[in-house]
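Task: complex structure prediction.
Instruction: return structure tokens for all chains below.
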Amino acid sequence: MSTGTAPAAVETPWRRLDRRMLVVGPISLLVRVVPLVAVLLLTGQGDPIRVWMAAGAAVAAVIAGVLRWRTTRYRITPERVELHSGWLNRQRRSVPRDRIRTIDLTAKLLHRAFGLSVVRVSAATAGTPGNGAGLSLDAVSKAEAERLRRVLLDLSPVATDPADPAAPVAQAPPSQELARLRWAWLRYAPLTFSSLAGMGAIVATAFNVLDDLGLDPRDLRAVDETAEQLSAAPLYVAVVVVGLALLVLLVVGALLLFAERWYAYRLTREPDGTLRVRRGLLTRRSLSVSERRLRGAEVVEPVLLRLGRGAQARAVSTGLAGDSQGGALQPPTPRAEAHRVASAALRVHPAEITRAPLLRHPRAALTRRMVRAIGPAVVLAAAAFGVGALLGTDWLGPVVLALVPLAALVGWDRYRNLGHQLTGGFLVARAGSLVRRTVALQRGGVIGWTFRQTIFQRRSGLVSLEAVTAAGRGGYAVTDVGALDAVDLADATVPDLLGPFRLPAASGAEHPPGDLPAQRAGRGPQERLHHG
Amino acid sequence: MDSGATAVPTTRPAVPGVPPPLRPPAHQVSPVAVRWWRLRALLLLAVLLVPQVVAMIAFGFPAASWLIGAAAATAVLVGAWAVLVPRLLFRIHRWEVTDEAVYTLSGWLVREWRIAPISRVQTVDTAHGPLQQLLGLATVTVTTASARGPVKISGLAADDATELARTLTETTQATPGDAT
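Output:
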């Protein structure tokens, strides 16, 4: 079995999804046809054809659910995970086990009620970089999901017999807890953009539902009376009241969303060498990242969160492209906690990764940041003055002009945040103002370089260096660094790769390419940069 | 408190006008590529001009004065591009494959140096577009495990491209590991 020969693969029996899917599958499909059925029944006034159509849709949903269960089979051979599904349109998916990067277990409310869980397997596959490949088992029992998670991410795939469903979960050695939810972190909930966007979605959905039900909020007596009182009051009072009401709504919504997403959050290191994030109130989620595939960590600070001294740590790993939270290892937390979690996940001191003392980029980068921030604002203001003059709305120009100092502030902040450092094992880079990201990328995870220089950058001697990697967003930039430093940095990060392509005696090459041991040691060349 | 305040040590000041100190890759693309880039520019010109001519005919002569101006400007700009830029591109575009790495330089306004280690190469594709087929050219795309990583060498002579793809495939197959 250990050699994984073909006969062994043939012997592996096929398995079906959990039997309870015979109930859950049809129900979840029925839920989807509810709007159609409702429309048919409500608009038809008891028209028999419409009633039959509605009944037909419901029956079709049930049959489809049953068929899906009947035709879906999966198995785990020593080398591959295979999934066959579909009846008329047969699909066969197969993922090599050594390409599996992350396992995501999701249980929505309905699934949870029946003790089921959806298993999503993400893999990196040659030829389809980035978006990766994978498959999803919708759904298996919780115990089976747990077993699959362990078997599929196990470093030694043959240690557990994949054909043995009775492999007990309870006997697993204890996992190490790296972090758990503290409700005090709720204070960061209103400071994240994603929660604001989520709130917008919820409000829009609520309005849609009300609209679908034929309800107009203005029909409600309390709403109507309030609206009348507001329209009687002076304009600024109305603006303040409505603004405050919206703010309260946003805050409450953000708190609720935080609770739904991060309830029972736990970050653990499992004995099988995976990092596991468990969270969720109604929809339970569990994301497992193979530590072997972890290429670094990122501390993300959206501007509001940064002003509130909060941050969020994310994993930089392959196979996270489809994750809605971008590989978040934690909810928004105090900044120190974010750095701590990043360091705990990577097993290195924070000063080696996201807390490393960064080198500031040359002054020319400040000029470039300022031009790029202020330029569009000035153009916009000029356009606003033009439009204002044309339409006779004189206030438009000055209002937009107020954007210019704001843009200058952002540009200055972006420069201030630019920085990089090479530590013993990591390339650390920071950039951004509205969303500041500090990324620590394993030096071994860099699989290529891109140096990019526009004609403007060339004039000021700057280069944007991008470290190409298989993990995370695929490339992490060191923005606007001096041209000579960019090459030195890349050469020092991955020794031996750049050497043959460097100009032998360029004006800035103070140390020859043969100077590798010092560069491997870490900060050597960088320190020399600013002392010399 | 704010780690931003600690970023005080600064890198060397940037020297104006300096490109990264990397030597250009060894090989140029096929000289025929100049014709390919020119043809592409002419195609673009056609795509831009045809609607303008149609508009001129549709609106008749009184409305056409500024339309003629726009059309003339388009023709001059794209024509100048077609005459001047392809030669520049030919001078800039270079590539090189060593036993360790694939190295390319491309771009006119935004210059790009790309380096990918051979050990991380996953697939090598050769593509011939219709124009390229006409001129006997090909594009070789070297893909690594990264979404941002594909290294493209376009405007190669078709035979060279096939040969390059073959040697690259052989080299990568000889290298163990899953390239991530």
